[in-house]
């Protein structure tokens, strides 16, 4: 037998070498799948789902050139939308104007009331009376004029005080178990 002989003994060696490579590949792939098979499967599923999502988003994207039917309908839709927007703005502006008018009227009434109070105060001072007393009487007259349904003043119910009249929390008396006394004042006992 020759080492470098190229006779019939050489061809079975090449077949064995090819078969050995196939076995090596099968062994390597098998060990790879047994170690990382679930990870590879999950990665393949994730890639598949990602491709599906991208293809759906590309299909859903409107084309840059609208068709003839879309072009015919689009101006009508735009005009209707603009008209609805203008009507909504007009309604909101009318509501705002009405609120502003009510606020101005209320402010005018408050100013008129203040002016009347100042006049009543000035007149009472001219007569030599206390203007605060007249002001209270005037306010009572305004309130009685405003609420004619309740002519009888309501009396407040008598309420008991929560504690006795002689209770003082700072005195240290009458309390429960809490009796605090301040410490001695003087030099500390130490040497």
Helix content: 55-70%
Succession of helices and strands = HHH
Major beta sheet, specifics? none
Rg over CA atoms: 50 Å
Number of distinct helices: 3
Mean pLDDT: 77
Silhouette: flat
Helix-and-strand structural type: mainly alpha
Distance between the termini: 113 Å
The fraction of residues assigned to DSSP E strands is under 5%
Number of strands: 0
Which spans have pLDDT < 50 for at least 5 consecutive residues? 4-10
Description:
- With 191 residues, the chain is mainly α.
- 66% of the residues lie in helices and 0% in strands.
- It contains 3 helices and no strands.
- It is flat.
- The termini are far apart.
- The model is unreliable at 4-10 (pLDDT under 50).
Short summary:
With 191 residues, this protein is an all-alpha fold.
């Amino acid at each position: 037998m020759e080492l470098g002989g190229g006779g019939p003994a050489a061809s079975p060696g090449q077949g064995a070498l090819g078969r050995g490579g196939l076995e090596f590949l099968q062994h390597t792939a098998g060990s790879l799948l047994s170690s990382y098979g679930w990870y590879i499967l999950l990665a393949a599923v994730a890639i598949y789902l990602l491709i599906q999502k991208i293809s759906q988003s590309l299909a859903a994207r409107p084309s840059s050139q609208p068709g003839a039917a879309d072009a015919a309908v689009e101006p009508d839709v735009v005009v209707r939308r603009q008209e609805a927007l203008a009507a909504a703005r007009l309604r909101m502006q009318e509501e705002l104007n009405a609120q502003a008018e009510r606020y101005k009227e209320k402010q005018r009434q408050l100013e008129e009331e203040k002016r009347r109070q100042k006049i009543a105060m000035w007149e009472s001072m001219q007569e030599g009376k206390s203007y605060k007393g007249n002001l209270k009487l005037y306010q009572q007259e305004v309130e009685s004029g405003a609420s004619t349904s309740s002519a009888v003043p309501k009396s407040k119910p008598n309420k008991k005080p929560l504690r006795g009249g002689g209770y003082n929390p700072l005195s240290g008396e009458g309390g429960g178990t809490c009796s605090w006394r301040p410490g001695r004042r003087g030099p500390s006992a130490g040497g």
